[in-house]
Input
Amino acid sequence: MANERGVQEKKSESAKDLAVKALRQAILSGSLSGGHRLNQGELADTLGVSRMPVREALRQLEVEGLVVNYPHKGFEVSRLSLTEIIDIFDIRAELELMTTESAIPNLTDEVCDRMETLLSEMDRLADNPVRWLKLNSEFHDLLYACSQRAYLNKLINNLRGNSERYLRLFLTVPTYHESAQREHRTIVAECRRRDPAAAGQRVREHLISTRDALVAFLKETRPEENPFGQFKTS
Output
């Protein structure tokens, strides 16, 4: 009985992981837009799992800030206001400064080389925001992993995911791609110098610059032009 229960729990956990991954990707890509009502039965049928792992997945995504659960209404995809977007980037700026400073003493030339290789590939992806964002995450993750601060980096990843669904819209603006790449290279330069304070500050400045540019872009974007339907005006 114990073994059977263990197998069932393992299967349930695998189904939950599948649901989390699928729903997170749908939200971050904009397939499930802000304000979209999430019917657990329909999601279970679509994903080919039972309702239990879907319910567990939604609870996890609620912790990540990607969905909200309203009493007597149920789950729906979250929408952020300008103030909330600003808050996320401000928090990210401080957390990512911290993890960068912790990473520098453990950094190797091989990690720096890999970061530069990613930047070279990103240079060719100005017209592919999905791929660019994936490599951008890999670029930052390479650096932050050297901090050996797993819990801090998990918080950063959750905040990054919630903000990137808005940033994906903005990546169609060529000037942002160019400025972001310049900032990335200043980060690598400070990493090679093994200067924790300077590297951390370059990361912080990069996030604040992105915040300001994204907020300006969203203020100019009319709701009907926003295919994600996620932006709250209040």
About this structure: Residues 2-77 form a domain with the Arc Repressor Mutant, subunit A fold (CATH 1.10.10.10). The chain is about 70% helix and 5% strand.
